Structures
1.
Amino acid sequence: MRTKLRNYVTGNTVERTFRAGEQVDEANIAKEAKQYTYMDADQYVFMDMTTFEETRMSASELGDKTKWLKENMECMVLMWNDKVIDVELPITVVVKVTQTDPGLKGDTAQGGSKPATTETGAVVNVPLFVNHGDMIQVDTRTSQYMSRVGAF
C-alpha cells in the first residue's frame, strides 16, 4: 500500500510503501479541549477548562490559524509526548467585518466579490452586499466566506 505520511512536529511529508501484513506503531496522541483565553506578548494562551492549566503557543507554531482565533473560543489541542503539536479550530467562525468598501446599488445583481477585513485582521472575499459592521460566517479551513449572520 502506497501512502503519504506527514510529520506533525516538523511538517515534512514523505511517501512510503507498506507490505501486506506489515505493522506500524501507533502514535500516542491526546486530543484535549482548551479555550483560547488571551494573547500575552507574542504567546497565545489556551486554558484547560477543568484543571485551569495554561498552554502557550507562539504565532509561528500556530501559523495561519491565528487569523481566526477569538477570545473564549474553544479549540482542540493535539498533544504528543506532553508537547503541543497542533491546534484544531472550529470548522466555522463568526466574525465582524471591520472594513470593506460599500456595495453600490445594483452591483449585487452581478454576483461579484470584494475584500473585507474582519475583527481578527483576516481579509476575506465577500459578496458585494456585505457591509461594514456585518457579522459573517467563515470556513476556517479554507478562509472562504460562507454566509452573512444576524439581522440585516
2.
Amino acid sequence: MRTVKVSWDKEAGRFTALGRHRGQQIVINAPAAPSEKHRAPTGFSATELLLAGAGSCAAWDVVEILRKRRADVTDLDVEVEGHQDADPPWTYRAVVLHFRVSGIGLKVPVLARVVRLSIVRYCSVITTLAGVAAISATIELVEPDGLSTGRVPIELALPAVPLPPALEPTADEDEDE
C-alpha cells in the first residue's frame, strides 16, 4: 500500500504532498482566496501531476531496463500530452508520451521494445490510466552528432479505448492517406 499526505497551506495558497520519502515534498496549486482576484499558480495542478506521474513512471522503467542492458544512455526526456473532456470532471481520454533519448550505440527497435515494456507491463500509473484513456507513444533517438530520427510511433497493443471525437481523424484527414 502507498500513502501520500496532502496538506493545505492557507497562507501560501498551496497544497503540499508528502510521500514515504520524508523531507521530499511536491507543491501543488490550490484555489485562490476570494480576496485574490488574479493570483499566479503556486505549484503544479493536480492534473499536471497525473501526467508527470505517468511520464516519470515510464522513464524510471526505461532507464532501469536500459541500464540492465548496459546501454550507454546520456539523456532521456519524456513529454506527456493529455487530452481531457471539455466538461467536468475533465477526464483524460487520451495520453500521448514522447520519449526523446540520446546515447551511443542505441537502436530504434531496441528503444521501442523497452518503451513498450515500460508502458504495457511495468508502469502502474499508465496501466491505471489505460482503463479510461487511449495511450500512445513515440520515440525519438538523438545521435551524439545531434541527428534525430524524428518521432517514431510505437505499437503498444493495449486494449482499445475509443478516442474522444476531437481526436478522431476526420474524413478529410483519411482522404490524404
3.
Amino acid sequence: MWRKQSEQWRVISVERADAPQLNQPSDMNRNIYPADADAHAEIKEAEERAAREHKRVLLVFGANWCYDCHVLDLAFQRRDLAPIVASGYEVVHIDLGPDEQKNADVVKQFDVPLNKGIPVLAVIESDGKLLMSQKNGEFEDARSLAPQALLEFLNKWRPRS
C-alpha cells in the first residue's frame, strides 16, 4: 500500500503472496478453446482414440480469457508432465465462452460445477462413463498449484496397464 507523505509517495505496507510454482503464460492470445469447436464431436473423437490407444479422456472446461486455464495448459506441456498426459489421456478443451454459459449441456452431462471457478477437469472412460469431475475448484487457482499436485492427479486417474 502506498501513501503520499508530503510530496513523496512511500510504501507503508506490503502483502506477500505465494510465488507461482507453475510457469506463467507470456501469451494469452493462444486459442486453447476455439469458439467454433463442436464439443460433442471432439469428445466422441477423443473417446474413439482413447479406446484404440487404451487411454482415458481428460475434459478441461475453461475459456481463452481465463488466465489459470492458460497456466494449466502450459503445465500439461512441462517436461515432467507431458509424457504422462500423452500416454494416458486424450485431452479435450471445452469452451465455456465469455459468460461461462456455452456448452451448458456438456457441463451438465459430466456433472461439472462452475461455481468454484475455472478451469474444471473431468475424467471419462473411452465409453463416455464419468470417472470423476472435480467439485471443489481444485484447479481454479492453477497459478499457485505445485507441479506435484498435477502429477498426483494425472497418475491417480490414468488407466492402469
4.
Amino acid sequence: MTAKLFMNPNPVIIRTTDTIAQGAEQVMAKQRRELPVVDDEGRFQGMLTVDCLLYLVLPKAATMDRGLDTLSFVQSSLDDLRKRLKKYWDKPVILCLKKKNITVVYPDTPMLETLLILYHSRTNLPVVEKNTGKLIGTISYYDVGAKILEESFD
C-alpha cells in the first residue's frame, strides 16, 4: 500500500498565473491553510499559505527583519487591513509562493512512511510525479481519516 491510497486526485489548486485575490478567495472558500500552486503544465511550484496573506496585512514594522515583537500600541481597523491587502490584490500569486521546506510525497511512497511524513509536517502533502514534477493530488489528515474510517467498526 502506498500514498496513492490516501490521495485526493482532484485537489483545489492555484495557478502561477492567478492573482493574490484569486488565491485568497480560494483559500477562504475552501477553508484551507495552504493550497498547492502549479504552472501551466501542472508542475508543482510550491504552496500559497495563509501565513503570507497575513504577512501582507500586518504593518511593515512588524514583518521586517528585526521588526517589532508586539503591536499592542498600534491602532488599526478592519478597513486598514483591507486597504493593505488591496495593494496586493492584482499582484501575481507567486508573490506568496512558499517553495522552501515543503515536503512532497510520491504516489509510490509507502503508506506508513506517508503517514509519518504527514504527522511530522503537520500540513497537507502534495503528491508529485517523480519524473515530471506534476502535481497529481494531495493528502490531508481528513483524506487519511476518511479512508481509515471508510468501513465502520462493526
